[in-house]
Amino acid sequence: MKTIVNKILLVAAAVLVLASCTKSEEAALKKIAGDWYYETVESEVPVQVYASFAKDRTFQLFQKVGDGAFRRYTGTYTFDGTVLDGVYSDKSPWKEAKSVTVNGDVLVMVGMKTGESITYTRKLVPATVRYHYSDALKSVADDTAPWL
Fold this sequence. Notes:
- This protein has helices spanning 2-32, 127-130; strands at 34-42, 45-53, 58-65, 71-79, 83-88, 98-103, 106-111, 117-122, 134-135.
- By secondary structure, it is of the alpha+beta class.
């Protein structure tokens, strides 16, 4: 009888531990989930980037470098509340993992290797971008390589 009670307590403890992990993961995903926007000019070339992170750990990246259409990249990501990393749909990894801080509608990503910092603001991806893009080719020029 004692071993049955111990097993029940062990199972109950495991369920509680898993539930607490799920809540912390959900809280981390909630911080980053949504649409983010970044705009800059590099070497006199305008750059626009929309990053959309879903709670199911998938992402879409829409970027436009210079003139022309936005390019769309997709894949999956991991986020533990501090470190963001991902893999594109073609199984290629992001350039580097990012250290992330979110403060309201501001998301700051800092490259873990390069220290490069990019600040995004919360902004919905416009329908004109989300539904009218050029699918990114597997081999793209360096100036159109994905920003993540």
